[in-house]
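Can't paste images in this forum, so I'm doing it all in text. The chain is below; anyone willing to post the predicted structure tokens underneath?
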Amino acid sequence: MADPVSPVSPIEAEILGEQTSALARATRLLEDALQRLEQATRAAAAASRSAALRTEALAEARELLWNVLVQREAMGILHHEILYDALRVPAEVRVHPRPRAVAR
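Text version of the structure:
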């Protein structure tokens, strides 16, 4: 009878390590973007000119969430509620994660 636990080859282990590192980097970038969004939201409440900064911070957070979700799904992680809760991802970021439009 075959062993139910198959050993991971060195190449597979290296690939998994790289995927994990990429996901960790993408998650750190998302965390930073969410902090900037929170700061921009507070600033926008105080001054109308800060609204443009908040709009940019929201676009950045949506794009970085998109990047993290793509990384997670590529690794087979399909449920994201724990991520949303752990990082306190606002609903306005969750509902429209997407890459930013490229200026032409």
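Residues 23 and 72 are 7 Å apart (CA to CA). The longest helix spans residues 10-46.
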